[in-house]
Amino acid sequence: MALRCIAFDCDGVLLDSVPIKTNAFARLAEPYGKEATDRFVMYHTVHGGVSRYKKFEWFFSEIVGRGITPEESREWGERFARYVLNEVRCCALVPGVREVLDKWRGKVPLYVCSGAPQAELHFVLRERGLAEYFVDIFGSPPAKHRVLAELVQKAGVLPEQTLMVGDALTDFNAALAVGTRFYGVGPELEGGGYPWGQDLMRLNAWIEANV
């Protein structure tokens, strides 16, 4: 079936920003000690693509031993954004991004499907000169699989006509839940039984050969 829509995660797929955000989670946890920091970084790493606010909830529940208040969640979100914003605005693109976007813009509608806050995504992608490539940019909330389902519905295409490009199991599970195709990027997804590349350098060739 013809490809009628491509959805890209942002961190680790468009922008080489995963280490920046990992460091920001570590900075938030540092006042609670090394063990707490290590556990939080591990949780973040295993749950790539999950909203940062869900990760804050986990930290308070599992490490602090109580629920997070709305005020604390907002304050952690503001601190996190301050920690990452300047670096994300100037970090490298994932290799192959420009080639893929230039190849398919105007041929196949392109979208962003990310677990980052939507307003932040719009701002960062405008700053990086990438927003113009996309028909729309979808972020959190809600959860990734709901974001992808909404994207497919608004694009007016069938799930099987959509390719999700992601770098985390959350992305793969979202594609599985919604019924889209999937292309994995980066070390976390290597060897998963789906098409995969270390970056986007081989994605154009794969699409041309297989879709």
UniProtKB/TrEMBL annotation:
Pathway: Organic acid metabolism; glycolate biosynthesis; glycolate from 2-phosphoglycolate: step 1/1. It catalyses: 2-phosphoglycolate + H2O = glycolate + phosphate. GO terms for biological process: DNA repair. One of its GO terms (molecular function) is phosphoglycolate phosphatase activity. One of its GO terms (cellular component) is cytosol. It is an enzyme of class 3 (hydrolase). This is phosphoglycolate phosphatase. Its EC number is 3.1.3.18. It comes from Candidatus Desulfovibrio kirbyi. InterPro entries: HAD-like_hydrolase_sf, HAD-like_sf, HAD_sf, PGP-like_dom2. Pfam families: Hydrolase. Belongs to the HAD-like hydrolase superfamily. CbbY/CbbZ/Gph/YieH family.
